[in-house]
Write a structure and sequence with these properties.
heterodimer; A: mainly alpha; two-stranded antiparallel sheet; 14 helices; about 75% helix; globular; disordered C terminus; B: mainly alpha; disordered N terminus
Chain lengths: ~350, ~325
C-alpha cells in the first residue's frame, strides 16, 4: 500500500489519457486540431473548392456571430445579466443605418450613426431600467423575465414603427472578388475586416488598458471592485455602450451584404450568437470570438453534407454538445470576463 | 356609450356566446400550458424558457404520427407526450446540472430550433404551409358530444364540445399537479427551489427531481399543444412563437408564483384581455396591430415583474423571487 512506486504507477496516466488531458489544458489547440481534421475529411469527400467556399462563408458568418457574442458576453460577465434583448440591439443598429440613409447621410456616416445610436440605447436602458432594477435587488428570475419582456417590446416596437416590409440597407451587394475558383462579395470582405478589427480592438482594450483591468475586476466581483475605489457605475455604463455599439455594428455589418433590414433581423441571429457565447464560455470575450467563428464554420461546413436550410440547427447541436463535453466553454473559467 | 363609440370600441361582443366559448377554449389551453411553467418556475425554481418548444414537439409529434404514419389518433396522443418527454430529457440532461442561466439559454434556444426545423423540414412537417388532416377522430368524438348535449337540451354550438373537454382536462391536470406538489415528491421540489445544496445534503438526487419536473412540464405542454392543434386544425410553425412562453410567464406571475389556482385565474384574465382587444378598431394595418399587441404583452410582463412580482394572489411567504 505504502510503496511509493506503486502509487506513482497508479497515478501515471496512459499515453492516450495524457494526450486528452493535454488537450483539455489547451482547448484552443484541441479545437483547432478537431476543426482541421473535419476540414480535411470534408475536403476529401466533398471537394476542396466547395470546402474553401464554405470556409469563406463560415468566416463571414462567424464574424457577425462573434461581434454579437462579444457584446452579450461582456454584459453577462459584468452584470450577470442574460440579455435576451441583445438580438434586438442588432436590429436597432441596422434600422438606424436605414434611418441615416433616409436622412441623406453617406453610407459610412449612416453606419457610424447606427453604431452610436445603439450604444446610446444601451446607456439609456442601463440608466432607465437596469440600474433602478439592480438597486431594488431583484432576483435572477426577474432579470431574465425583464430581458425577455424587453426583447418582445423592442422587436415589436420596431416592427410597429418600421412596418413588416424589408428596407434597403443601401450597399453594393453584387460586386465580388475572385480568388481562383472562390468568390467573396466585396461588401462581405470589407465588413469582415471591419468586424475583426473591432473585436481585436475590444480584446486589446480589455487586456492592456486600465479601463480593461477595471472591467475585468468588476466581472470578478462588483462589490470588491467598488471597495477598491473603482467607479463601478462608470464602468457599467462603458460596458453597456460597448455592448450596444458592438451589437449595432454587428447588425449593420450583417445588413450591408444581405441588402435588406427587417424587424426579425437580430432575432434570426440571436440563437447562433447564444451558441457562440456558450461555446466560448459565458463571460469570456476571446471565447466569444472563437465561439462565433466555430459556429459560423460549423454551420457553413454542414451545408456540404446536409440541407442548407438546417444550418441553424447545427449551431444548436454544437451548443448541446458543448454543454455535455465542456460546459465551461472553450476558454475555461466558469465565471468572469477574461481579456 | 357614446364616448366608447367615438374611440371605436363596440362592447356588443361581450354578449356573444361564441366570444366566451373561444375565450374558454384558449384560456384552458394556456392554463394547461402555464401549469407546466408554474411547476418548473414556481415550485422547482428552474427557469424553463422553452415551454413553447415542448408544446410544438408534442403536437407536431402527434400530428406527424397520425398524418404521415397512419397511427391512430388516440395512440398518437400518448406517443406525442412521450416524444415531448424525450425532448425534455434531451435539453435537461446537458443543461440542468449547470447554472440557472445555462438552462434558461438552452431551453429558449431549443424552443427556437424546434420552430426553425418545423419551418424548414417541409417533407415531415409541411413547413409553413402547415400540417393538417389529424382531426378526423376528434370530429367524430365532437359530433357524439353534440348528440349527448342535444339529449339534455343544449343546442349544438361550434367549439362547445372542445371547451367541455378542455375544461375537464384543465381541472384534472391542475388537480393532479396540485396533489403531486403536496406529496413528498413535491416537497423535495420546493426544497430544491429554496436551497438546492441543502436538499442534496439530505441525500436527495436533485438532478433527477429537476429532470422529472421538466418532463412533467413538457408533458403538460404537449397536452396544451393537442388542445391548440384541435382548435385550429392546422399546425404551423407560426403557432409556436416564443411569445407563447412569454404568455405563460405573464399568466404565472399574474396568478402568483407557486399558486396553481392562480394559473387558472391568470390564464382566464390574460386571454380575455387579449381576445377583447381584438375588438379595438384602430386605424392601423393588421400587421401593425399584431405588433402592438405583442408590444403590450412585453410591457405588461416587464411591469408585473418590477411592480408586482408576487402577482395578484401570490403569497410572499410561499415565495419571494430569489433575492440575491
Amino acid at each position: 500500500m505504502s510503496d511509493p512506486s506503486v502509487l506513482a504507477a497508479a497515478s501515471r496516466p496512459g499515453r492516450l489519457a495524457a494526450t486528452t488531458a493535454g488537450l483539455r489544458r489547451r482547448p484552443l489547440l484541441g479545437f483547432a486540431l478537431g476543426a482541421g481534421a473535419i476540414a480535411v475529411l470534408l475536403g476529401a469527400l466533398e471537394g476542396w473548392r466547395e470546402l474553401g467556399q464554405a470556409t469563406i462563408n463560415g468566416i463571414v458568418a462567424g464574424n457577425y456571430f462573434a461581434l454579437g457574442a462579444v457584446g452579450l458576453t461582456l454584459i453577462f460577465g459584468v452584470l450577470r445579466l442574460v440579455n435576451f434583448a441583445h438580438g434586438e440591439f442588432l436590429t436597432f443598429g441596422a434600422y438606424m443605418l436605414v434611418a441615416g440613409n433616409a436622412l441623406g447621410l453617406p453610407l459610412l456616416a449612416s453606419a457610424a450613426f447606427g453604431v452610436l445610436a445603439t450604444a446610446a440605447l444601451g446607456l439609456l436602458l442601463e440608466v432607465g431600467l437596469w440600474r433602478p432594477v439592480r438597486r431594488k435587488r431583484v432576483g435572477e428570475l426577474q432579470l431574465l423575465l425583464l430581458a425577455l419582456g424587453l426583447a418582445f417590446l423592442m422587436r415589436n416596437a420596431m416592427a410597429f414603427v418600421a412596418g413588416p416590409e424589408d428596407r434597403r440597407a443601401g450597399a453594393n451587394v453584387t460586386a465580388g472578388l475572385h480568388l481562383g475558383a472562390l468568390r467573396i462579395g466585396r461588401t462581405e470582405l470589407i465588413v469582415t475586416m471591419v468586424g475583426i478589427c473591432a473585436i481585436v480592438a475590444v480584446a486589446v482594450v480589455l487586456r492592456s488598458t486600465s479601463l480593461g483591468r477595471q472591467t475585468r475586476a468588476l466581472a470578478d466581483s462588483i462589490q470588491l471592485a467598488e471597495t477598491t475605489g473603482i467607479d463601478t457605475d462608470r464602468i457599467v455604463l462603458i460596458t453597456w455602450a460597448t455592448s450596444g455599439g458592438l451589437a449595432g455594428l454587428a447588425g449593420i455589418l450583417y445588413a450591408l451584404p444581405a441588402g435588406t433590414v427587417h424587424p426579425n433581423l437580430g432575432f434570426g441571429l440571436i440563437l447562433s450568437i447564444f451558441a457562440a457565447v456558450v461555446v466560448g464560455g459565458i463571460g469570456n470575450a476571446y471565447g466569444a470570438l472563437a465561439g462565433g467563428l466555430l459556429i459560423g464554420l460549423a454551420q457553413e461546413w454542414s451545408t456540404l453534407v446536409i440541407d442548407p436550410a438546417m444550418k441553424v440547427a447545427v449551431g444548436f447541436a454544437v451548443l448541446i454538445a458543448t454543454l455535455l463535453v465542456r460546459p465551461q466553454g472553450l476558454f475555461g473559467r466558469a465565471r468572469g470576463v477574461e481579456g | 356609450m357614446t364616448e366608447l363609440g367615438l374611440l371605436g370600441v363596440t362592447i356588443e361582443f361581450l354578449w356573444n356566446v361564441d366570444f366566451w366559448i373561444n375565450v374558454g377554449v384558449l384560456a384552458t389551453t394556456y392554463g394547461v400550458f402555464a401549469l407546466g411553467i408554474q411547476l418548473n418556475v414556481g415550485t422547482t425554481g428552474i427557469f424553463n424558457f422553452g415551454q413553447a418548444g415542448f408544446m410544438a414537439v408534442g403536437s407536431y409529434g402527434m400530428g406527424i404520427l397520425v398524418v404521415k404514419a397512419d397511427v391512430s389518433f388516440w395512440l398518437a396522443l400518448v406517443l406525442g407526450v412521450l416524444i415531448a418527454i424525450a425532448a425534455a430529457l434531451l435539453v435537461g440532461l446537458p443543461s440542468l446540472r449547470l447554472r440557472a442561466d445555462y438552462f434558461a439559454i438552452s431551453t429558449l434556444a431549443f424552443s427556437e430550433i424546434v420552430r426553425y426545423v418545423a419551418d424548414n423540414w417541409d417533407g415531415l412537417t409541411g413547413g409553413n404551409l402547415g400540417l393538417f388532416g389529424y382531426t378526423d377522430s376528434w370530429t367524430a368524438t365532437s359530433a357524439r358530444i353534440d348528440e349527448l348535449l342535444e339529449r339534455i337540451g343544449v343546442a349544438p354550438r361550434f367549439l362547445l364540445p372542445l371547451l367541455l373537454v378542455n375544461l375537464a382536462i384543465l381541472l384534472a391536470a391542475a388537480l393532479v399537479v396540485l396533489l403531486l406538489v403536496r406529496s413528498p415528491w413535491g416537497r423535495v421540489l420546493r426544497a430544491i427551489r429554496e436551497d438546492e445544496d441543502a436538499a442534496r445534503s439530505l441525500g436527495k438526487n436533485t438532478f433527477a427531481y429537476k429532470l422529472q419536473s421538466l418532463s412533467l412540464a413538457s408533458s403538460l405542454a404537449a397536452v396544451a399543444g393537442y388542445m391548440l392543434a384541435i382548435n385550429i386544425s392546422i399546425l404551423s410553425p407560426a403557432n409556436f412563437e416564443p411569445v407563447l412562453t412569454a404568455y405563460g410567464y405573464v399568466i404565472v406571475i399574474l396568478g402568483g408564483l407557486g399558486s396553481y389556482a392562480g394559473v387558472v385565474v391568470g390564464s382566464a384574465l390574460l386571454i380575455f384581455v387579449l381576445e377583447a382587444t381584438r375588438y379595438l378598431e384602430l386605424p392601423l394595418s393588421d400587421a401593425r396591430i399584431a405588433s402592438l399587441r405583442f408590444m403590450i404583452v412585453g410591457a405588461v410582463l416587464m411591469a408585473l415583474v418590477v411592480f408586482r412580482p408576487q402577482g395578484l394572489f401570490g403569497r410572499r411567504e410561499e415565495l419571494t423571487l430569489r433575492a440575491r
